[in-house]
Amino acid sequence: MSAKTVDASRTVITELMIPSFANFSGKVHGGTLLSLMDKVAYVCAAKHSGAYCVTVSVDGVEFREPVEVGELVSLSASINYVGNSSMIIGIRVESLKPKTGETKHTNSCYFTMVAKNEDGTLMTVPELILETHLDVRRFHDAKKLKEKRRDIMDMLHREFKDMTDEQLAADLEGNRCIVEIVED
Ligand SMILES: CC(C)(COP(=O)(O)OP(=O)(O)OC[C@H]1O[C@@H](n2cnc3c(N)ncnc32)[C@H](O)[C@@H]1OP(=O)(O)O)[C@@H](O)C(=O)NCCC(=O)NCCS
Question: 0.85 exceeded by the pTM?
Answer without folding.
Answer: yes
